[in-house]
Amino acid sequence: MAKITRIKAQKNKRRVNIYLNERFAFGLDADNFLKAGLKIGQQLSETQVEDLIFKNEFQKLLNKTLRLISARPRSEKEIIDYLKRKKTDPKLIDEVVDKLKSLGQLDDYAFAVWWVEQRVTFRPKGKIALLMELRQKGVEREIGEKIIAEKVDELPLARRAVERKLKIYKNFPPLEFRQKITGFLARRGFSWGTVKEVIDEFLQKR
Question: What pairs with residue 17 in β-bridges?
């Protein structure tokens, strides 16, 4: 057993430091502190201390992941990879992921919709590239294929992508123009049928 000998507020008023037997033991957020009903003179078992430390780490990691998600939506794999890079205990990872899901902050379907819509709007890419990106983010193939089928019309996207390159390639001879644009669109993940149709359109306009 260990005795609480001091409880000190941190600079962050939402957190406190807990001292056991005159030595700093751990920090704790205000909510968990109040729920635990800790007070000076209270005796804590080793199990109780471990549980409080776990709750403290959980809350810190939850807050960090929520800040990440507030910057932009994240896939479940992105959050897990982030926590693994911090060498987080696997049990804590599971707890944080489950909590984020229960809060509606972690949803691979919603993430995939957002990702595809962002790409369609700001960086036109073909279905092949989009599916590859989603798979790299840990999104299930079936989800990715469904959303891409609903959200992506390759032909206008390919046209937009080429229009942004016309200043560079517009004066190239037809064969070289075809080669350059073919390579560009292929790298963007557009299908061969789309690539051929778009190139033929632009060559006819020249």
Answer: 8, 27
Are the C-beta atoms of 42 and 65 separated by less than 8 Å? no
Alpha-carbon distance of 32 to 101, in angstroms, equals 21
Sign of CA dihedral 81, 83, 85, 89: negative
Using CA of residue 186, residue 132, residue 148, residue 83, what is the dihedral sign? negative
**Which residue is associated with the tokens 């590859």?**
132
pLDDT of amino acid 206: 67
Q: What is the pLDDT of residue 79?
A: 98
Q: Which residues contact 206 (CB under 8 A, 6 or more apart)?
A: 170, 174, 177
Identify the sign of the CA torsion 100, 101, 107, 110.
Answer: negative
Q: Dump pLDDT digits (tens) for 41-94.
A: 999 999 999 999 999 999 999 999 999 999 999 999 999 999 999 999 999 999
